[in-house]
Amino acid sequence: MRQGSFQWMKSVNKSIILNKIRKDGPISRAQIARETKLTPPTVSSNVKELIDQKIVEESDFGESLGGRKPTMLVINDQAFTIIGVDAGPEHIECIVADLAGKVLKRSQTKLELPINSEQFLAALKRGIAECLDGTSDKEENIIGIGVAMHGVVDVERGVSLNAPILGLANIPIKEELEQAFGLEVKVENDARAMALGEYWFGNHGELESMLAVNVGRGVGAGLIIDGKLYHGFSDIAGEIGHMTIDLHGEICECGNRGCLQTFVTGPAIARKVTNRGAANPLTAETVYKLAVGGNRQFADILKESGQAMGVGLTNLIHIVNPEKIVLGGGVSKAEQFILPAIRETIQASALTPSASKTQVEVTKLGDDATLIGAITLLLVDLFELK
């Protein structure tokens, strides 16, 4: 594997300068020096190296403060690309994206279920190979592969420890993909990857903390604190779908009763409709479409799911008190029904007036939120010192 291809970035001064350009560009060398407290010669020498390595480029002239107009610096977004993968549970979606998160190419591979670990890894490799096929990028311009995987992930080893929806465990994703493609691979839980992508590309401004919640076939969350993704002691931070909100509720697939995901996921919504006398089994997507079309019963079921989500989010507000909560995943598309119910529940239940006004909104990254999160795994590694 091409270990250390981007270690030219891994010095304190380079990281400080590079992140300043990423966040505030176009920016002049003089402004970088003033705002980072680095000396002008230090800034100039490091900027020269970054330009030589094509990660930074000069753009238009800035405004003059009395002398000649300064040359402005920006990140060269097209210099390198990243492979992002949203791995299951029904499809494997892959993208090639630039450093600004712009999608240049994509592929989708349907998973044939049931599936074993070897078949899953083979499908992963096919999807990535298809996405790479025909790209004009030279190998040295591809930073690596980011994989967003549902369930519990050992981030250090890049192993999927438990993928409950697929019924798989201990999948060596990082090892297999690095061997197959000769690129650095980062593997992360899908909701946490989504949170990272939201923080970098969601246009949320400067936030100290943010919670991103992915609601689809399951419920997961990612927590950003001081700009960093929080994993917890055992790498299970964010498994909020198994938060108990009703001691006498329905038995969850994890074996406990009344977990949040028995109320708010797509399958949970579909079950509620069936339990209330629907003639034929319906998907949550169909329930939503019929609710939009005027079916009051289905609209009420979606609102109830929003209320349950509001209870779960209120608990999280009381524990971690994030500045903002962002919702993604398929169920979030029913925002006209669930979002008002979530906000009303939080407003009625939160302990303080400030907490009751916690911002809750739906991702603006759409269906690509998790894929954008997957590429961000490599961007963090590229731009930030460990």
Topology at a glance:
Layout: H1 12-24, E1 27-28, H2 29-36, H3 40-52, E2 56-61, E3 71-75, E4 81-87, E5 91-98, E6 103-110, H4 117-132, E7 142-149, E8 152-154, E9 159-163, E10 168-171, H5 173-181, E11 184-189, H6 190-201, E12 209-215, E13 219-225, E14 228-230, H7 261-264, H8 266-275, H9 284-292, H10 296-320, E15 324-328, H11 335-349, H12 353-356, E16 359-362, H13 369-383
Parallel strand pairs: 4-7, 7-11, 12-15, 15-16
Antiparallel strand pairs: 1-3, 2-3, 4-5, 5-6, 8-9, 9-10, 12-13, 13-14
Helix pairs in contact: 1-3, 2-3, 6-13, 9-10, 10-11
Keywords: Carbohydrate metabolism, DNA-binding, Xylose metabolism
Family: Belongs to the ROK (NagC/XylR) family.
Pfam family, one: HTH_24
What would you say this structure looks like, in words?
The protein has 386 residues and is of the alpha/beta class. It is built from 13 helices and 16 strands. It has helices at 12-24, 29-36, 40-52, 117-132, 173-181, 190-201, 261-264, 266-275, 284-292, 296-320, 335-349, 353-356, 369-383, and strands at residues 27-28, 56-61, 71-75, 81-87, 91-98, 103-110, 142-149, 152-154, 159-163, 168-171, 184-189, 209-215, 219-225, 228-230, 324-328, 359-362. The strands form four sheets. Strands 6-5-4-7-11 form a five-stranded mixed β-sheet, with helices on both faces. The chain is globular and about 75 Å long. Keywords: Carbohydrate metabolism, DNA-binding, Xylose metabolism. Pfam families: HTH_24, ROK. It comes from Planococcus liqunii. Belongs to the ROK (NagC/XylR) family. Transcriptional repressor of xylose-utilizing enzymes.
